[in-house]
Amino acid sequence: MNQQQIQAPKKSCYFCSNNIDAVDYKDTLLMRKFMNSQAKIVPPRRTGNCARHQRMVTRSIKRARAMALLSYTIK
Amino acid sequence: MEYELLFFTYASSESKVPGIKKDIEEILTSHGGKFSGDFTDIGKRKFAYPIKRETHGYYSFVRFTIEDKEKLPEINKRIGLMSNLTRHLIVKAAEVGKPVSAIEMPAREIIAEEKKIEEIPEEKTVETKPKASMDDLDEKLNELLDETPS
User: Fold this and answer.
1) What is the rounded CA–CA span in Å between residue B44 and residue B14?
2) Number of domains in chain A
3) Contact B104 A25 (CB under 8 A)
4) Domain with A40 in it
5) pLDDT digits (tens, 9 = 90+) for A10-44
6) Are residues B50 and B81 in the same domain?
7) Cβ neighbours of B139 (radius 10 Å)
8) Which domain holds residue B142?
9) DSSP structure class, residue B139
């Protein structure tokens, strides 16, 4: 049958819906939301983030990793 | 333009932090930078991964403004050459947003506060339970708080 009917409703961007305009690289708990259990960055198709905010999240996660606030990997 | 500078040292050399702050202030002011606030200490925090076998660091950050952004690479280099500082990071303040207090950071004071909060209600209700469990709880809490950066 038509496979498109099974698709889940599209999630909305967390930052757009909460009116957050900047992502702090020190806020590890927030960034942890957008990482999986292996500490990989989750793609926006799973989180629903818009492109602009996904770039912000990625940038601050990478900064936090360099500062040892977040880990590069969890085995 | 306003920038934010974050740096940390190993927790074992925490006593050097005031000296580091002075050096940073000297470097910044000599290149025409101006502090827009005082240093905010995040405090002692567990690293997400060990760095040269060290597991804990002492973090602090400050915001400053500088007119001539051409001088930033020079400042970055000078701070990087400081031997008693482990790592540092300079970012545009606009990308970080408003200055936040160390809410999410399991700093020392926060751990101490949580202990106080949890101790008070527990004394009222747990008269029948043995007192040893309290210490266990505290230990577990400390462990959990230490493990949060992952």
Assistant:
1) 8
2) 1
3) no
4) 23-75
5) 778 999 999 888 999 998 899 999 999 999 999 99
6) yes
7) 10
8) 108-147
9) H
